Amino acid sequence: MDISTLGGQILGQIPLGDIVLYLTPFNLFMFAGALIFTALIAMSRTETQIEAEFGSLKDNEVKVGLEEFKIRRFLAIVCGLATAGAMITGDLFNFTLFVALIGIVNIGIVSAVKQIDVLNAAFQYGLIAMIASLPLFGGAALVLASTGTLSLLQLSTLASTTPMMYFASLLLLMGIAGETGVAPFYATKAEMFRTPGSPFILIIHLSSLLVIVRAIEILLIINKPF
Amino acid sequence: MSIGRLWNQLANPKRIPRLFSVVLGLILLVGFLVPMGLNDHQIYPRPAPQEQIDQKNPLAPYDRGGSPLTEPGIVKAQYPQNAEELGMITGYLSPIAIGVKNTTLYYGTSIYSSPGGLIDEILYYTRGFDTILESTILMMAFVLASWVALNFTMRRKEE
Predict the structure, then answer these.
(1) CA distance A177 to A172
(2) Which residues, 6+ apart, have CB-to-CB distance to B60 below 8 Å?
(3) Which of B21, B30, B144 to mutate to test the interface with A (most CBs of A within 10 A)?
(4) pLDDT tens, position by position, B86-102
């Protein structure tokens, strides 16, 4: 599908050698959204959860220590910047690298938590993220092999779609589903959220939502179903 | 089996990597049935096989011509207008490489160093942003691993 049909008028390009980022209203909106949210996260402090204790009438406060707070804030900011980058990138391989970066940073945001259940879920998510890098980069490599280009601006001008490109898109979708942990593979991520430190946990959620939206746009550009 | 039981099994994090790998395995098996349609106008062209070896070129099969900083070698880019100095370092050889090149015909297939800077030009020039991202991923992995090692492994006795 045409880029301007999907994202609106192309407002400009940022050429970085072969990697040309392009700006459309659709991409810019998500880019700005990710950046604003990242700025809010960088300024905010973590929440404190109150749990009821068993066998008494007291409450238990679950707080985030300073060391843990620092590393989680750092990783959350990196995650937000990677999400923002994935929104405006105009190159398929560049996009997959941003997604891989988001995946590894997501594990990091929860790996600082000292709760066994959460760490177990994060471990399982890490396994999926590692397995998913195979279809993710394999899909991008297959698109390069079957079209000879990775630039989305060039991919959108191609006249036809070969079966190999459909298969490459399927692999890409599988890789993105694994890295971001969407629908059938969601359980690992849902368990990861059960921990204090709210704003940093939310960037995991926001990044996967934005990446999925952007991935659908890219898959439509490659496959041109309509 | 009822569908509710199926959803419940999906809610167990331990089963998710297995489910994911089974689905991925099935998709990869489907890949064997997909007809190969390779694009033969690839971005990085190469000379015909054995052509440079027959010419007794010590850099074979990786000779791309050009001389450093004066004449560009054969390197193509997706957007040549964004990389105007492309190919200028492809012909560069280090002094050691020149020495080895003069003693043997098989320098190009040896492991000393890849003659010609094609890989360098891709890594640091035409696709330089990708290289930045790759090393960022690596750095984040090290940050994570060292943080976990310092805070969970080494201070375990304190708790």
Answers:
(1) 8
(2) B52, B53, B108, B109
(3) B144
(4) 888 888 887 888 888 88
**pLDDT level of residue B155 (50, 70, 90 thresholds):** low
pLDDT over 60 (residue A55) = yes
Q: Give the three-class secondary structure for B22.
A: helix
- State the total domains in chain A: 1
Chains A and B form CB pairs within 8 A to the count of 148
Q: ipTM score here? A: 0.85
CB contact under 8 A, A112 and B147: yes
Higher per-residue pLDDT: A97 or B19: A97
Which structural domain range is residue A112 located in? 3-223
Contact B30/A121, CB-based, under 8 Å?
A: no
Instruction: Please list every residue in chain A whose beta carbon sits closer than 8 Å to the beta carbon of residue B158.
Output: none
Domain boundaries along the sequence of chain B: 1-37, 51-126, 134-159
Element (H, E) at A62: strand A59-62
